[in-house]
């Protein structure tokens, strides 16, 4: 099914702003990450999406490519972000086939509900490994390409970077660790660490023209997180009454936040956490 632009992207963005840019995205076949990549591809980028499931990843790549005539979107499956070599191979293939890597989305994540009393050390470690080690591995595999991309555009640092600066990272986090959340010890610990990756990388890599930021989605309709992990549905009154915006969000709203951070409008945003949750976490509401 070919989606119409208004279904995945606001009309405030100008077509072509990411022309000649290349996206590398882990977890790219998932609902949120595929929406992020689809929006960027619509606006001119080419992309490589990474996933564990070959069929799902390749199918999603083809689907995303319909966002723009002439778009190149490669799906590389059978890649586990916990394995640095398979990620490195994927990053090298992406750069070789698409001409570099300008923007990275570290979106692969693992989640299930379990109280700590039933959480084995291996279960805890599995989520930490996917979320934290996986994000680290993603940055390590792509950093030389990002540095190259930032260098191509970087000036002497005294004036803002010119139009179309590359070398940007977005980590996809969550909001449960901003308060406390039952059944999510493992994920809360993992996402807290993911947030801090952006803080440190921004300090280390900022002088090289690279930005590293976090997007923390709140309750987003139609996502695996909400369908598999949330006890409520949006139509239940209890599921929205503590959300200041009064509703669940859409993947389009996460895509719009992504476009902002990667666009020239986001040049001076570095090491930040952009929470896109309709104000939910301020009320301690957890989906
Ligand atoms: C307790 C569990 C469990 C459960 C798995 N484990 N599921 N423990 N309750 N429901 C334990 C296993 O028993 C095992 O420990 C350990 O975790 C590893 O399990 P494996 O199946 O071998 O791991 P693996 O194949 O690597 O799978 C990783 C996974 C899995 C995280 C466990 O759930 C997964 O791959 N999920 C798909 C990706 C995903 O979850 N995406 C959703 C992201 S949504 P033992 O001790 O038995 O060896 C998101 C948004 C959050 O992140 C928003 C919230 C609303």
From TrEMBL:
SUPFAM superfamilies: NAD(P)-binding Rossmann-fold domains (SSF51735). Keywords: NADP, Oxidoreductase. The keyword Transcription does not apply. InterPro entries: DECR2-like, NAD(P)-bd_dom_sf, SDR_fam. It comes from the Eukaryota. It catalyses: a (2E,4E)-dienoyl-CoA + NADPH + H(+) = a 4,5-saturated-(3E)-enoyl-CoA + NADP(+); a (2E,4Z)-dienoyl-CoA + NADPH + H(+) = a 4,5-saturated-(3E)-enoyl-CoA + NADP(+). It is an enzyme of class 1 (oxidoreductase). It holds the Pfam family adh_short_C2. Its EC number is 1.3.1.124. GO terms for molecular function: 2,4-dienoyl-CoA reductase (NADPH) activity. GO terms for cellular component: peroxisome. GO terms for biological process: fatty acid catabolic process. This is 2,4-dienoyl-CoA reductase [(3E)-enoyl-CoA-producing]. It comes from Tothia fuscella. The lineage of its organism: Eukaryota, Fungi, Dikarya, Ascomycota, Pezizomycotina.
